[in-house]
Amino acid sequence: MNYSxxxxxxxxxxxxxxxxxxxxxxxxxxxxxxxxxxxxxxxxSFADVLCPxxxxxxxxxxxxxxxxxxxxxxxxxxxxxxxxxxxxRKTAGFAVLFLLLANDLRGNYIDxxxxxxxxxxxxxxxxxxxxxxxxEYKSYDVLFLSEVDRDRFTPHFxxxxxxxxxxxxxxxxxxxxxxxxxxxxxxxxxxxKEELAADGKLSxxxxxxxxxxxxxxxxxxxxxRIRVKxx
Length: 231
What we know:
This protein has 231 residues and is α/β, with parallel strands linked by helices. It has one domain (32-228): Rossmann fold, CATH 3.40.50. The chain has 8 helices and 5 strands. It has helices at residues 7-31, 43-48, 58-67, 87-101, 112-119, 130-139, 159-172, 208-213, and strands at 76-81, 107-111, 142-148, 177-181, 223-228. The longest helix is centred in the first third of the chain and has 25 residues, at 7-31.
């Protein structure tokens, strides 16, 4: 008798494979830097942080995000909204990152302030240069750049061009980049004077990619926008 063909044995084998797959996904999530408190965000929890004024049917939108893998096949997934506290933006970002990692991708979470400090320091560390850092961020299958505040970039250190190099490469190679903005994404007519150049156009602080993605009126099939509610 071939015991492996018995239904109960097949069930045990399937359950073992499911557990192995779940453990592998969790390990990828931990390796990507997802904090423990954000490792298990289910569909309902994701829907709970969405802004109902932007996403007219939040349950339907959340269902599509969790059940249609094609919706996340975008070059950029932009998250904004919420209050000054980043909890809801991070919840949405980590949920999307986890879903992408479940597709056997390798990813990483980075805080924008941390990246900015490294790029704006001439000697980033003893062991790694800025070019090494840029190559690392290019390499990940998926990258979550959290809490972008373009006003905090200093142009004297060429951090803008380094950010453009990273995002341009990732865009050209269809590597999803999740970006959460500290400030709400708005139309250019609603931008403050500090965010506009002398000619009235949007300032390129942070690079042309972050500048373009910070505008609501940029319509592109390769961009998925997610807005969260205030806490």
